[in-house]
């Protein structure tokens, strides 16, 4: 499956952005989809993940819980990340990732995802 992330940009602190990740390929609904971010000089960090069909699990990192929402539209093969109340520390390149065979306990681990999008830059000014 191929993933294409979009929706990044420059926003002031307190603002909102919605990221999209469009997937091509069959059986998208069965894939666990995740969002990760990476700021310069840091390791890739888990942001949010949503499980595939039949396993209703959603996970958020503590740093974004209550501000970000992950959801998917299987009819459009797309997963979204709604980001509200953005902070300067949310500035990073955001990547979407997908995998068909993840178990719920590994949704937060980047190395367990087989497919990655190219990333979209999010910059939050203070």
Task: Quickly list its features.
about 130 residues, 7-stranded mixed β-sheet, 4-stranded antiparallel β-sheet, about 50% strand
What does the secondary structure layout of this molecule look like, with pairings?
Elements: E1 2-6, E2 9-12, E3 17-24, E4 32-38, E5 45-50, E6 58-60, E7 68-73, E8 78-83, E9 92-99, E10 115-116, E11 120-125
Parallel strand pairs: 2-11
Antiparallel strand pairs: 1-3, 3-8, 4-5, 4-9, 5-6, 7-8, 9-10, 9-11
Explain what you see.
The structure is a single chain. This protein has 126 residues and is mostly beta strands. The chain contains no helices and eleven strands. The chain has strands at residues 2-6, 9-12, 17-24, 32-38, 45-50, 58-60, 68-73, 78-83, 92-99, 115-116, 120-125. The strands form two sheets. Strands 2, 4, 5, 6, 9, 10 and 11 form a seven-stranded mixed β-sheet that branches. Strands 1-3-8-7 form a four-stranded antiparallel β-sheet, with no helix packed on it. The protein is globular, with a radius of gyration of 13 Å. The model has no long low-confidence stretch (mean pLDDT 95).
């Amino acid at each position: 499956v191929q993933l294409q992330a979009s929706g990044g940009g420059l926003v002031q602190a307190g603002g909102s952005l919605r990221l999209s990740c469009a997937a091509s390929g069959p059986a998208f609904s069965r894939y666990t989809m995740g969002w990760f971010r990476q700021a310069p000089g840091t390791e890739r960090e888990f942001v949010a993940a949503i499980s595939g069909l039949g396993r209703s699990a959603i996970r958020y990192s503590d740093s974004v819980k209550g501000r970000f929402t992950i959801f998917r539209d299987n009819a459009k093969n797309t997963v979204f990340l709604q980001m509200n109340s953005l902070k300067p520390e949310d500035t990073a390149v955001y990547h979407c990732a997908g995998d068909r065979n993840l178990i719920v306990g590994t949704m937060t681990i980047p190395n367990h995802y087989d497919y990655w999008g190219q990333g979209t830059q999010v910059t939050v000014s203070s």
